[in-house]
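debug: dumping io for the single-chain case to check the tokenizer round-trip. Nothing else runs in this session.
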Amino acid sequence: MTQTATRTQARKPASKPAPARKIRLILAAAGDMPAVARIETEGKAALYAVREVAGQPQARMFCVREVVTSDEVETYTCYIGEKTQSCTCQGWNRHRKCKHADGLAVLVKIGKI
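debug: decoded output
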């Protein structure tokens, strides 16, 4: 009698799909005034002041600050290059992806900023 062995492979847990995100430029930068962008994720929207600062030759650098009424405001720095991007927020540090860098990359690509 012949015995057959079956091998079962461990299945990876199903990864959670990325949340749907939308970005819209509300106000273009003018003089000393920063641009204002609205980022919506999972039905929650936030306004961000976006100011371009001197960056590296291969990437544009932006200072992103949420426009809120409380005193607890985070400021992030986003680097947007032709093929790469990064951000200093917790989302980027954990997942190597975030709404700030993704949104700014889209606005740069379509020539809005």
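debug: round-trip ok. Strands lie at 21-27, 35-41, 44-53, 59-66, 75-81, 85-87.
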